[in-house]
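go over whats below:
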Amino acid sequence: MGWMISSPLPILLKKNICMHKSKTIHTILIFLTALLCLTGPGAVMSQDIPAAPGACLTTLDKGSVNWSTGMVTVKGEAAPLKDKKKNADTIFGEARADASRNIIELLKQIRISADLPVGTYAADKDIIMAGIEKTAMDARITRQLYSSDGALKLTLETSIYGGFLQLVIPETIRQIPKITPAEPQTDSLDATIDHTGLIIDASDIDFSPVIYPVILDEQGRELYSSAFISREYAVQNGIVTYVCSLKAAMKSKRIGIHPMVLKGLRVGEATPSSIIINMSDTNRLEEAVERHHFLKECRVIIVLAK
């Protein structure tokens, strides 16, 4: 009876392969654990999204305001100190706190009107300042970047729509009851078309975006102001949206499928937060009885220069 001697080489190779796989898996698990520790609590790992074509952005000391979306973006950072050790949670907390401070400062720089920044308006109003701080606390982290030495830079984003606007839009803007549009009283062709929104083309005048702009005629009469606006819509969507392209404005869902387009004549001298339109455009707007409906709902876009 012959003996078949089995070589130990295949067994050893199989054992080595299994050990190699085990080490590889172990290394991956360590890497993933370290990555989770670095990202910090509540982190969102994503890339900064460039502004859409036609968007209007204002860059301030601490970040930027996208007036086309209502989004405010700031950055915060924290670096490990050489004289003491910090863990990932501490670094994350310091960067988040820095970004929160920056977003509060940026929100205070936004102007309600040309001569009234939010910070001045809220200076003696504890409730409003508390609301601004809460807006910063609720802001979303959209990007985190760690350097090789453990320093962290993160991006924080929040919206001015909703709670923030509820705090800062003028108290004169109140709820307007439901309006039933009347029948047109003129035979002009323009008036027979139900307009769905309003575009003010201010691209040829030097107008800076504010939370509460006003549209005036050449005699100084208010055509779009607190008397025409329902607070519910102003808080939810802003009193106006700003874009830096007429083409982008025409595509916006905010003003519907058939907006009225009027030309900004100049900025008001006494009130730089106002845009004046000529008498011809004033007549067009006032002949459109449906204006009460779309102005009430803040379906208004202002086109600014790029």
Notes: Confidence is low (pLDDT under 50) at residues 1-49, 184-189. Residues 76 and 99 are 4 Å apart (CA to CA).
